Amino acid sequence: MILRYLARRLFLLGFVFVALTIFVFSLNYLFPGDLVSNLTGLRDISPEQHQELQQTLGLNQSIWQQYIEYNRRLFAGDWGLSFSSQQSVLTEIGKVLPATLELTSYALCLSLLVGIPLGLLAAVKKDSLLDKCISSVALVGYSMPVFWLALICIMLFSLQLGWLPTSGRLGVLFEVPAQTGFIFIDILLAPQIDRSAAAYNALLHLTLPTLILASYPTNVMIRFVRHSMVDVLDQNYIKTARAKGLSRGQVLYRHGLRNALLPVTRQVGLQFSSLITLAMLTEVIFSWPGIGQWLIDSIYQRNYPAIQAGLLVVSSLVICVNMLTEIVHTLFNPLARKL
Amino acid sequence: MNVTLCRIGSLSLVLWLTACQPAPATHGANGLVYCAEGSPETFNPQLVTSGTTIDAISQHLYDRLLDIDPNDGSLKPALAQSWQVSADGLSYRFKLRSDVQFHQTKYFTPARPLNAEDVTFTFNRMLLLDHPFFQTAIEYPYFDSIDWRHRVQSVTAVSPDEVEFKLNQPDSSFLSVLATDFSAILSAEYGAQLVQRNEKLNLDLLPIGTGPFVFREYQKDVLIRYYRHTAYWREHGSLTQLVVDIVPDNTKRLAKLLTQECDVAPIPRLAELEMLSNRSDFRVDQQTSMNVGFWAFNTQKAPFNQVKVRQALALAVNKPNIMQAVYFGQAEEATSVLPPNSWAYRKQNAPEGFNPVKARQLLEEAGYPNGFSLDIWAMPVQRMYNPNAQKMAELIQADLRAIGIKARIVSYEWNTFRRKLGQGEHDSVLIGWSADNADPDNFLRPLLSCAAAVSGSNRANWCDPQFDQFIASALQTTNVPQRRSYYLAAQQYLQEQMPLVPIAHSKRFQVKNHKVTGVSINPYGGISFVNAGKTP
Fold this sequence. Notes:
The complex is a heterodimer of chains A (about 350) and B (about 525). In chain A, about 75% of the residues lie in helices and about 0% in strands. Chain A is mostly helical and about 350 residues long. Chain A has helices spanning about 1-30, 35-40, 45-55, 65-75, 90-125, 130-145, 145-160, 185-190, 195-235, 235-245, 250-285, 290-300, 305-330. With about 525 residues, chain B is of the alpha+beta class. Chain B contains 18 helices and 20 strands. Chain B has helices at about 1-20, 50-60, 115-125, 140-145, 150, 175-180, 190-195, 250-260, 270-275, 305-315, 320-325, 355-365, 390-400, 415-420, 440-450, 450-455, 465-475, 480-495; strands at about 30-35, 65-70, 75, 80-85, 90-95, 150-160, 160-165, 215-220, 225-230, 240-245, 265, 280-290, 290-295, 330-335, 375-380, 405-410, 430-435, 500-515, 515, 535. In chain B, the strands form 5 sheets. In chain B, strands 11, 12, 13, 14, 15, 16, 17 and 18 form an 8-stranded mixed β-sheet that branches. A 4-stranded mixed β-sheet of chain B has the order 1-10-9-8, covered by helices on one side. In chain B, strands 4-5-7-6 form a 4-stranded antiparallel β-sheet. In chain B, a hairpin with a 3-residue loop joins β8 (about 215-220) and β9 (about 225-230). Chain B starts with a helix and ends with a strand. The interface of A and B includes residues 168 and 287 of A.
């Protein structure tokens, strides 16, 4: 049963990837400029070289064979060069992606850590003053644009109070070579620096972007958990459990919480895509050297190979995370397997 | 499942926090962050004239034979201990210091201290076509602009610590050329090593110099990292590290100053400066730059060939008004072509200020009682010496109306503008000049000599044998008081003849954190952190 389900999901995943690569492949033709340079990222190609490249890229074959050839290159790790730096886009992504993953995962954790307890609290104390406070704060946070909030926070915490830095991942005076791309691990690996001072500094840099990025998913989570819990608490089995004589705590934990949190796992996957989108905004505002800023720079520079590769990586990431949470959700909830 | 993962994550985060002792907001390391406006194009000052690049590299990595005293503009010994000029002014001999060490880095370990070979290696690069590195650069903009290959006949090592420059003709501004940021001394030993490894391009990318800081790393558009040169020959400040943080956005640079992520930064906008100068934790330095914005008349055309007309026009311009409206107080009113911080600046007998009545009278004497009409060409681009030529033209237009002259404002696209200007199609033009070195010759010769009228940088098309005589005589002598007297006479003559109306010398602003010591703006070149330190 579960294996069949997994097989079906994976088949669907493969299908989505095929659609994605077809789309990205077609961009080569849709972008202005020369097809060969769009595919390879090379600039100033001489006519002879152009001829040769057409041969190796299989451009004189049918469009489907070109597509297959394109996929083969993707798997071989030959993603072309960036127009602006003339370096492989794959290595460039390797440098910027960890920064984004770091930021988004911290923000996601924060939103779960804050969002779930507050949501539960609001649901349990439904219609009390506390509930009204939490719900209205969540509503205000939910409607506040992230870039506006970011600028207000920069003005307050950085420019007025001078507590937190406004840009980057680490003070420039710390020489930390990028080895893994994850700043805390890199600090541990870096030779000859004051590690604790560097880690503290990295934490200061991380604070504001993480808080800003977490604000939207946290508020979504509060509202979602509250709604879900209120629904569950209205169910007949809760009344039964209470009637059976279970204490309030037991009812809440054993019957309420478990059932209420089930939809939350699914919500995490759904939130991830909006989180990535917001991360791009946050990265630009805080000069965070992640994939969002890199992609937006690439768009400004009309760096077509980089735009394609960035699109492919970000979309794949979102699809994979969605699929993963979907599967986890199904494992916990047998009802969902019937789909 | 996700929740437990996060709990572990958050727990480790908390552990991290407790593991760190609270550090002050500024970094523990004794380093200084200079926030620059842009990335450097190269790491060799021979190859550029851009101020951003010079500020980011020159004074930190390299030394020069001579230095310019930032206070009075006089020349003082640096890598050259002493120097002698031959009686005919054609030969310059420099005696070098013997205790100067080159940088030791991952890519180069020097085997010997500086000697005459390094100096000849450096200066022959621009001179000799068979120099191994001549071909590696497309151009040497500064040295090409001063016509290095025609000025200098040869550069030779007389002994291991003595170098001789032979010139083709006497030129007393030559020493100033050697003191500019562009005349940085490179290592011949490093050059030889690169030739051997066939990595010639690295001479300009992975720098080796004798300066107070050693190159460590460069991340394009992100930062340049320097470490202290421990074997530096001069006494220098306490910094162990210098980072040039590249922040092109003005607002972000200001924000970084406020959050103390930057210690020193150039800031161009006035509104921000006022805010900063009100705070006790920042110091705003200002300095008049070596440039001049002016209004030049095409003296080949009537009626501008008449001295009285030019004088009348000069008297009609309300300069204080322009200072307010165009420069927003970020410039100094010009009384001469030379800025006040030049050693040859003429303090006495400043020209008469705004006087429309006298201007009308002069016009009458010149035979134009009812005025005439003229074109004012306003350059279409922003320059430091003239941030808004269009607006300046409008102000002058209004001033001229008061003395009965009708002015029309003309502008073209920049390249067309310069071409038409070179052909002398203009009546008058609002433009300016930024000097490459501190020598007064660098203002007077390219702007107003007969030779410049031919080559095109003399916007007034003014050719006067008497003026040429003054500046030529000044170059013939190396006696400074005597040179000055020639330049004073030249300026006096200019004021009488008025081929152009000097309007303003713009100022440069720099903001620094109050903890930073030993950094000031140098009017004659890039920023230097030799004496910089930071109080905790």
